Q: What sequence folds into this?
């Protein structure tokens, strides 16, 4: 049944109104407005609780300059600075294999900017690949909440070419070379089911 | 040629003087007074530079409470607290396998106190073993600078028994169940040569 105005004229929603509705839905039910990091941490908690894998986010490295030791209470850090991480954010073990990855998101719709990755991280990924570790990146396009797994060998290749070629990875190429991570409730981002299909067959 | 006093009497060093000399030697050349952590970090740098393995110490986890953002300079953390780590200190990849360990030292000469390990760390080690990761502890007896590798399954077993049995692992049992790590110059503590012999045969 169509909706009608009081004057009897049929109500036809405009194209962008429809889009807004579906966009809101996707945010409130699919992603619930959480960051990719929060979603992955919850997924890792699930994997740990179920005995599926042991994967943790590494703490942020800080340079501590000044610490106070007040009587009868814990040491208080009074001056410290954020340091650039020399590795990726996540690592751990799944079925005996070493797992290592970085997670990033972009608001871009058609490509993923390479400036999201630092030189140290790319070098670290290359080192892990040389040691036959499983290494990848999880890329979220936040506009439509799509998450892809892209093997580190592709990311590194694009990253090193960016000086002479483009400074982002086209989404079409991520779709072709990568793998969609299905959304779920438990776990939210079931990237290990995809890892299992790709690396354990 | 023996050393003589001015009165012609031969100088015979006392037993404990001799011991002191050899002890000092062992400190200045063997260990150079560095902590076990420093020695392991240098060894890990060597492994990384030589393409042997990718193993890093995790940053200390901190709870950040207050951050200042002064103009034109980096963010300054003004209040933060040390948090207890929920995992071990070191992990990484060696020949495709996941490596995970904790390093501790004691001044005790005949046993290693179990209070050096926290519940979270022991639980984490159990989880890693369930995932078929390679998990162990490096134990240094600092008095004579001996380092042993002890598989996590033994450490966990002693740790869980401590309520009813002894609160330390006798050195004799560490010698029997563990493996001596030979001292070297490059790398200082070549634990991966031992890991290779134990876990890759």
A:
């Amino acid at each position: 049944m169509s909706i009608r105005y009081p004057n009897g004229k049929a109500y036809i929603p405009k194209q962008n109104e429809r889009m807004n509705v579906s966009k809101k839905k996707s945010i409130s039910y699919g992603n619930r407005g959480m960051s990719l990091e929060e979603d992955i941490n919850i997924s890792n908690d699930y994997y740990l609780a179920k005995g599926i894998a042991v994967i943790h986010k590494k703490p942020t490295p800080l340079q501590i300059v000044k610490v106070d030791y007040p009587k009868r209470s814990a040491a208080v850090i009074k001056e410290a600075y954020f340091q650039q991480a020399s590795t990726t954010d996540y690592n751990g073990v799944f079925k005996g294999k070493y797992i290592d990855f970085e997670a990033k998101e972009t608001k871009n719709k058609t490509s993923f900017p390479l400036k999201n990755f630092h030189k140290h991280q790319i070098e670290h990924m290359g080192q892990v690949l040389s040691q036959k570790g499983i290494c990848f990146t999880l890329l979220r396009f936040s506009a439509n909440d799509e998450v892809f797994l892209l093997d580190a060998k592709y990311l590194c290749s694009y990253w090193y070419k960016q000086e002479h070629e483009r400074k982002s990875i086209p989404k079409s190429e991520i779709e072709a070379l990568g793998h969609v991570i299905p959304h779920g409730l438990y776990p939210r981002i079931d990237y290990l089911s995809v890892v299992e299909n790709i690396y354990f067959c």
User: Anything to note?
Assistant: The domain at 17-59+85-199 of chain A is CATH 3.40.1350.10 (Trna Endonuclease; Chain: A, domain 1). The longest strand of chain A covers residues 97-106. Chain A has six helices and ten strands. The radius of gyration of chain A is 21 Å.
